[in-house]
Design brief:
alpha/beta; Alkaline Phosphatase, subunit A; Arylsulfatase, C-terminal domain; 2 domains; 10-stranded mixed beta sheet; 4-stranded antiparallel beta sheet; 9 helices; disordered N terminus; binds 2-acetamido-2-deoxy-6-O-sulfo-beta-D-galactopyranose; binds calcium ion
């Protein structure tokens, strides 16, 4: 449909403006932007019902675009969700797609087809700004020379990233494989096993901390914040946490300005509201909910500022913006930062059960919005869609002739608000466990382990018995109906086994 539209647009342009140089049809392809937040819950935005926090810019996208009530990340943690987003492959097919340390090697095989690689083969300028967390190098990274392979080797022409998470070392920005502002005389060393002699740690030097750790996060101290992992050197390259939002925003804007001559794809992977929550001074106290709320307000502001750039550059009518989150919410994720104490009446889960790390709905049912000025009619959809579908769906928008094979579905009609049909079924993942969704039902197989992860106070979805929920009647998963529907349960188990079966037939690169 859109390809047809693009074709018509192009032929009109060439007829009407026949005295002017004919535009390259490629420039008519839509720009594509994925704004990806970190740990933002379904209920954290006004558009999904939040009343205790203001997110006007994200709400604008929702109110003027299509808002999905059943939009899912593939997983309830970061690395696997990002893997699925970029490859269209179920992350449980890759054993290494788990929460990674900052020293982990790249987990995307550089020979497979990814969304940015495919787009780049179609003439797109492709860029990532923000959180990566998919590993770098081949093991034993030397942070003081070119760090490769990384985002640039799996399809991004431009990358300006943090390696893992805001709470993990190395706490530096990396641009196209090089640590930014690194002083060669003060080389960076990183270890996730042992401290470097003489370096203070959160555990032994509480007097140096401006933020206290609750669980984990007691190793190297950077900017008064204790982190996961040990780091030595790289003083001039270390980021200032409070400036990170402004920093990535400026890089995202720069990418747009520098790449607008061609169609572009930007993966803008914000760090908020993941821990440590470090709002800029301008946002401190703005939400009344403590730093977690403040960084959500900050992230929303970033969305607004970024949109202004698209307006100024006259790109709105030709740009598809997808806004979503890598996994559901968590309050205490390892630091004392008042997230629990100041939550008041705010419900980040939006009435769902569980949260980050959980197989219950709040783990993966996340904010999911598509906006394209003039192209998408404002709408709300209850159809099932997953981030794993974005690769195929975007590919179908760009070219209806593609033969991409992965675990995603082409749902581009749905993305454009055209009353398309969503998925019938989906496997979701949480810390290497999986569950099966079918229509309005979700089946969670029995898993050993604690029912509640005590440190974060989240129900994980572990149970001795099969659980089955009818989300249409029971969206907060209060009533296990596995015993009431034994035949249906059997059917779901058998389908689930089939989907989880042998992996086969994944795309090796087909373009270039
Ligand atoms: C956990 C961290 C948590 C967070 C998470 C990754 C501890 C005790 N907890 O291991 O704070 O960093 O990993 O989050 O270290 S994610 O959103 O990137 O998946
Ligand atoms: Ca996350």
């Amino acid at each position: 449909m859109t390809s047809l539209l693009l074709l018509i647009l192009y032929s009109c342009t060439s007829q009407v403006k026949n005295k002017e140089p004919i535009e390259n049809p490629v420039t008519k392809l839509p720009n594509i932007i994925i704004i990806y937040t970190d740990d933002l819950g379904y209920g954290d935005i006004g558009a999904n019902g939040a009343t205790e926090i203001n997110t006007p810019n994200i709400d604008f996208l929702a109110q003027n675009g299509i808002r999905f009530t059943k939009g899912y990340s593939s997983s309830a943690t970061c690395t696997p969700s990002r893997y699925a987003l970029l490859t269209g492959i179920y992350p449980w097919k890759n054993k290494r797609a788990k929460i990674l340390p900052g020293t982990a090697p790249l987990i995307i095989d550089t020979s497979i087809l990814t969304l940015p690689k495919w787009l780049s083969g179609r003439g797109y300028n492709t860029g990532i700004v923000g959180k990566w967390h998919l590993g770098l190098g081949n093991g034993n990274v030397n942070w003081n020379s070119k760090i490769t392979p990384g985002p640039n080797e799996v399809g991004f022409n431009y990358s300006h990233i943090m390696a893992a998470t805001q709470d993990r070392v190395p706490t530096v920005y990396i641009e196209n494989g090089y640590v930014v502002n690194l002083d060669k005389n003060d080389p960076i060393e990183i270890s996730y096993r042992e401290n470097f002699e003489g370096e203070p740690t959160g555990k032994d030097n509480p007097e140096l901390l401006k933020m206290k750790w609750h669980h984990g996060h007691n190793m190297s101290i950077v900017n008064g914040i204790p982190r996961i992992g040990f780091m030595k050197g790289g003083e001039s390259a270390k980021w200032k946490d409070e400036d990170m939002a402004d920093y990535f925003l400026s890089k995202a804007k720069e990418f747009v300005k520098n790449n607008k001559q061609n169609p572009f794809f930007l993966y803008y992977a914000m760090q908020q509201p993941h821990v440590p929550r470090t709002p800029h001074e301008r946002f401190k106290g703005k939400s009344g909910l403590g730093p977690r709320g403040d960084v959500i307000v900050e992230a929303d502001w970033c969305v607004g500022e970024f949109m202004k750039t698209l307006e100024e550059e006259n790109l709105m009518e030709n740009t598809l913006i997808i806004f979503t989150s890598d996994n559901g919410p968590v309050l205490n994720d390892g630091y004392y930062d008042d997230a629990v104490e100041k939550i008041g009446n705010h419900d980040p889960k939006g009435g769902l059960r569980g949260g980050k790390y959980s197989l219950f709905e709040a783990g993966t049912n996340v904010p999911f919005i598509c906006y394209w000025k003039g192209e998408i009619k404002p709408n709300v959809s209850d159809e099932l869609i997953c981030q794993i579908d974005l690769f195929k769906s975007i590919a179908a928008l760009v070219s209806d002739k593609n033969s991409i094979k992965n675990d995603g579905k082409d749902l581009h009609d749905l993305l454009l608000g055209n009353n398309g049909k969503g998925r019938n079924s989906l496997v979701i993942e949480a810390t290497s466990r999986t569950a099966y969704k079918k229509d309005n039902f979700v089946m969670i197989p029995p898993y050993k382990g604690q029912a509640i992860a005590k440190a974060v106070n989240i129900e994980l979805g572990n149970s001795k018995n099969y659980m089955l929920f009818d989300l249409a009647k029971d969206p907060s998963q209060q009533k296990n109906i596995a015993d009431e529907k034994p035949d249906f349960l059997k059917e779901l188990i058998s389908e689930f086994k089939q989907v989880r079966g042998e992996h086969s037939n994944y795309n090796k690169i087909e373009l270039k």
